[in-house]
From TrEMBL:
An annotated Gene Ontology molecular function: ABC-type oligopeptide transporter activity
Protein name: ATP-binding cassette subfamily B protein
One cellular component term from this protein's GO annotations in UniProt: plasma membrane
Compartment annotation: Cell membrane
Organism listed in the record: Cuneatibacter caecimuris
Alphabetical list of Pfam families matching this protein: ABC_membrane, ABC_tran
Keywords: ATP-binding, Cell membrane, Membrane, Nucleotide-binding, Transmembrane, Transmembrane helix, Transport
Length: 604
């Protein structure tokens, strides 16, 4: 069965364990979401028609075989030949196998095509979402939507749907056959089914809660395991091993207790159901015997057929209850996926958006206001005029809004008040892709990809020749360490750069920016975590790539930016001081104080 919690059906008179895997998450709008899922199968309706037909045929064997078996008994009793009936029976089972195979064949291909489509649409959508969306959602949660939720839908479509259809047809078919054979005996059999149905309902309500609690506790425990492993060095450094173990044990114990209760409850119902099923079987046997003796029913064959039907009748009900829960979980997952698909993407380019290829680089910020959330403005009325070719350093205490300025320039976010212009036009008037290409960026986040060093440097310039890549690495001062790597530029960064030092990663991202040869450079915290020798290297590289270009440098080490044409000190979202290094030192304000603290007064 699809759900990971499910255990294989225990074969107790064909009844699978009830209540197991009942930790279904209820969707908010079951019908609406199901309808949207249905709409996704648009190109596969004919295949689904086949599946429906095959499901009806597949249930045919369960429906017909007891009847044929009854006829075999009748034939033996009457002394008639049974070869033809036996051949029919064998043909029926062979046919069932073929039909089920074809059913699986259609379902697998349709199911996987639909899932392929969902995955692709979802991934395409994520790429268009504004960064503000990711601020509001944990990465882990998004990952879970892309993997677990899609997985759930996949297994449900592939497995549960065919079973649901087949069981549905089986119930209708068996009920019809039983009614045709003997309405009275059918009533007796139905009484047992109704009893089992209600009993299952009562107990599963309880087990569902217990399994939900088990899932929740499992999640908590997994979280602790993940935290423990990823933060192990911190745990060791602060000697917190014992506390960690104690916490783990508490959560482990809780999970253990709730799991035991869940299993006991789900196990408790099974034997009871078995008893009811057997009692029902006995009741039908006694009744049919009495009816036979009274001459109310025709023959032994009918009794045999009927008893076989009773044996098969209860199973589809219990299975459908389980499948329904899987469906609910899958539909709830689909709901979460549709939630992402319904999000507003980044604003599209205006119809008459301007192309931008070789800007001069005049940047003007005019009374700019911005906040990540409406209630907390981060930049407050910032006005700045930067002529083309100026090297601007943005400095200020942690959290003052420096990176936010960069986020607005690259249009990762849009201003909430005022405007930013480039060469006289509002940033929002340009084509987004053109605008982003204008910037060569080295961000705080030194993200590298699990590909070769060469591909990482050429990330923004995929057609670059090897010589250009090496030249960029030389300019960034990254060539020396790259040459020392086992396969030099072809070394694959299997762990996405985690195998390099922070400084090396920064040098690579600088080389990447160099290669773009973009007209405007943005360097955020490029020297924050490297030794002084590397810092000097980076500083030289930065000066080189900033030459003749409008450039924005954010650095905590003020020595790096003292030669900048303009230093802007941001404090609490406003410009506190602005000028050249000398001017600001002369001013003797906050900048002068920060510089003094960092370098010792001698250097001033
Ligand atoms: N994605 C975000 N969502 C909500 N608030 C944010 C987000 N990014 C930053 N902030 C908040 O905006 C303020 C300015 O952040 P910003 O990153 O611009 O500071 P900074 O000056 O670059 O700091 P640092 O020097 O530490 O990098 C901070 O209070 C921060 O908490």
């Amino acid at each position: 069965m699809a759900d990971k919690n499910m255990v294989p059906p225990a074969n107790l008179n064909g009844i699978s364990r009830p209540g197991r895997g009942m930790a279904a998450v209820k969707p908010k709008n079951f019908k609406g979401t199901l309808l949207r899922l249905w709409n996704l199968t648009k190109g596969h309706r004919r295949g689904l028609g086949w599946i429906l037909l095959l499901s009806a045929l597949a249930s045919g064997a369960s429906i017909l075989s007891p009847y044929i078996t009854g006829n075999v008994i009748n034939a033996i009793k009457d002394g008639d030949p049974i070869t033809v009936v036996l051949i029919m029976l064998i043909a029926l089972y062979a046919g069932e196998w073929l039909v089920k195979f074809l059913q699986q064949f259609f379902m697998a291909s349709i199911g996987q095509r639909v899932i392929h489509h969902i995955r692709l649409t979802l991934f395409e959508k994520i790429k268009t979402l504004p960064l503000s969306f990711f601020d509001r959602h944990q990465h882990g949660e998004l990952m879970s939507r892309l993997t677990n939720d899609v997985d759930n839908i996949s297994t449900t479509i592939s497995n549960s749907l065919t079973l649901l259809l087949t069981y549905g047809f089986t119930i209708i078919g068996i009920l019809t056959m039983m009614l045709c054979l003997s309405p009275l005996l059918t009533l007796v059999a139905l009484a047992g089914v109704v009893l089992i149905f209600f009993l299952t309902k009562v107990v599963t309500k309880h087990t569902r809660q217990l399994f939900s609690a088990q899932q929740k506790n499992l999640g908590i425990l997994n979280g602790q395991i993940e935290e423990g492993i990823s933060g192990l060095s911190v745990v060791k450094a602060f000697c917190r091993e014992e506390e960690m173990e104690r916490e783990f044990e508490e959560k482990n114990e809780k999970l253990c207790r709730v799991s035991i209760r869940a299993l006991i409850w789900s196990g408790y119902l099974m034997p009871l159901m078995n008893v009811i099923n057997n009692l029902c079987y006995v009741a039908v046997a006694v009744f049919s015997g009495a009816l036979y003796v009274a001459g109310k029913i025709s023959g032994l064959g009918l009794i045999t057929s009927f008893l076989l039907y009773v044996r098969q009748f209860t199973r589809p009900f219990v299975e459908i209850a389980n499948i329904y829960n899987n469906f609910q979980t899958a539909v709830a997952g689909a709901e979460r996926i549709f939630e992402i698909l319904d999000k507003t993407p980044e604003p599209e380019d205006k119809k008459d958006a301007l192309p931008l290829t070789h800007p001069r680089g005049d940047v003007v910020m005019d009374h700019v206001w911005f906040g990540y959330t409406p209630e907390k403005p981060v930049l407050k009325d910032i006005s700045l005029s930067i002529p083309a070719g100026t090297q601007v350093a943005v400095v200020g205490p942690t959290g003052s809004g420096k990176t936010t300025v960069i986020n607005l320039l690259t249009r990762f976010y849009d201003v909430t008040g005022g405007s930013i212009t480039l060469d006289g036009h509002d940033l929002r008037d340009y084509r987004m892709q053109d605008l982003r290409r204008v910037f060569g960026v080295v961000l705080q986040d030194t993200s590298l990809f699990a590909s070769s060093v060469r591909d990482n440097i050429a990330y923004g310039q995929s057609g670059a020749a090897m010589e250009q890549i090496k030249e960029a690495a030389r300019t960034a001062g990254a060539d020396a360490f790259i040459e020392r790597l086992p396969r030099s530029y072809d070394t694959v960064l299997e762990q996405g750069g985690a195998e390099l030092s922070q400084g090396e990663r920064q040098l690579l991202t600088i080389a990447r920016a160099v290669l773009t040869n973009a007209p405007i450079m943005i360097l955020d915290e490029a020297t924050s975590s490297v030794d002084t020798v590397t810092e000097q290297k980076i500083r030289r590289a930065m000066l080189k790539i900033c030459q003749g270009r409008t450039s924005f440098i954010i650095a905590h080490r003020l020595s790096t930016i003292r030669d900048s044409d303009l230093i802007v000190l941001i404090e609490d979202g406003t410009i506190a001081e602005m000028g050249t290094h000398e001017e600001l030192i002369q001013l003797g304000g906050r900048y002068a104080m920060m510089y003094k603290t960092q370098t010792g007064s001698a250097d001033i």
